Amino acid sequence: MQNIEQTISCRDVPISALCDVKLWNHFSPLTALYMPFGFLLLLFRLLLIGAYGVIFPLFPVSRRKRIYRIFIRMLGIRVRCNMTSQEVGQHTAGCVVASTHVSIFDHIPGLAMPHATLMIDKSDSPLGKFVGYILFKGSDSNYWLVRNQRQLVQCFRQWNKSPEQHALYITPEATINNGKALFRFRPEFMIRGQPVVPLALKVKLPFGLSPSPMMSPGYVRFLTILMMPYIHFEVTYLDKLHYSKEQAPQEFADTVQQAIADYLEIPATRWTKDDKYSYREQLKQS
C-alpha cells in the first residue's frame, strides 16, 4: 500500500485518507445476525419506492415536497438541518449550493429542500434511472439534463431570467469522499455570477458500513445502504460566498472548499477525482 501511494506522490495527506477500499470498516457477529432482517427491510423499501412511484402523481404539486419528506423518513432517512425549510429557501434561492459528496444518497436530502435543482448527465443503471425519476418528480424538484457545454450554457441563461426559482445543488469534488478529508473543488459551476452557499454534509450509517466503498459498484452501495436500519444526514448551510473576477477561479473554489473543511474539521486536500481513480487502478493491479 505504501508503495502505491508513493508512486502517485504524497501531498498534504496520503490519497488513501480519502478512499475507503472495503464495503465494511468492520464486520461483527452482530452485523451477521442483522443481515436477514436487512434483506427483508430492503425488499420492503424497494416495494415502498415502487408504490410511491405509482401514487405520487395523485398528490397536489404544492404538497409533494412535504409528502416527500414523510416518504424518505419511511425509508429510514433522517435529515437534520441547521435551518428550517423556509430559512433554507430564503438562504439558497438564486444560489449555487456547493456540497460535499459522501454517499450516492446525497441527492435525497437535497431534494427535500425548497428550489432544489440538480444537474444530471447520465444514470449508471436502469435502477438508478427509475429511482431518480421517482425522487425528482415525487419531490417536485427540478433537474437540468446536461450532456454538453451548449446545454449547460442554455440552462444558465434560462436561470438568469428568474434566478430566485432555483437553488443549483452541485458536488464540486466530482467524486465521493469518505468523510475524512475533501477532494479539491472544481470551479466550473461556481463562477457564473451567482452567490455560492457552501454545504457541509455528513452521513451516519450503522454496523461500520462505509458510505463510499471505492471498489463496489453503485448498485451494490445503493442496495446495501437500503438494508440498514437507519441513514442519518446532517446538513449544515454556511454563509454565502461571492466570486470576484479579480480572483482566479481555482482560488475561489479553494475558498469554498476550505470553508466546508474548517466547519467539518477535516483537511481540504489538493487530490482530485483523477488521482482517486488512478489510485484505484493501481490497487487493482497490486
UniProtKB/TrEMBL annotation:
Entry protein name: 2-acyl-glycerophospho-ethanolamine acyltransferase
Species: Vibrio mangrovi
TM ranges: 33-59
Keywords for this protein: Acyltransferase, Lipid metabolism, Membrane, Transferase, Transmembrane, Transmembrane helix
Entry GO MF terms: acyltransferase activity
GO biological process: lipid metabolic process
